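Handoff note, outgoing to incoming analyst
You'll be picking up this chain. Sequence as last confirmed:
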Amino acid sequence: MPPAKRHWITVARDQYKFSCAHMTVFPDGTKERLHGHNYQLGLALELGGVAASEMIPFAEVKAGLAWVTAAWKERVLLAARSPHYVVVRADEVEHEFTLCGQRYVLPRGDVLELPIDNVAVEPLAAHLVDVLAERLADVLALPVVRGYEVTVSEHPGQGARCAVTLR
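Most recent structure output, in case you need it:
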């Protein structure tokens, strides 16, 4: 019996990057200074086969990745579920908050609150698995798609991955 084959397709091009700012909080309640990254986003789909009749609609995959990178670029990412993050005041113009006891006031449009407890590549990858599941629901529902994996890289060769098995 021949060995079982596993097939993956990957989309992780330079165009799927987003520049943003963040502050990672450490377990002792200290944090990094506000700084930025040029994160690159990648998606790999595990396929049950590679027959022409099972081809994946790449345009939908690329559109989903492009949507995330456009929505997240040039923002300050904040972890809404961090116990060290407190919103002092938020309106259409400004977003005032404290993080680890330090006060910040930013233009509202520059802030992106995420439903995570820390802004680091590991929780970003885990959250983006859910975001892309919603954006790519039709693609992920295809019978040939067995699972998917999201990669968030902060430097070439340094990042985090989160995978989901569908079937």
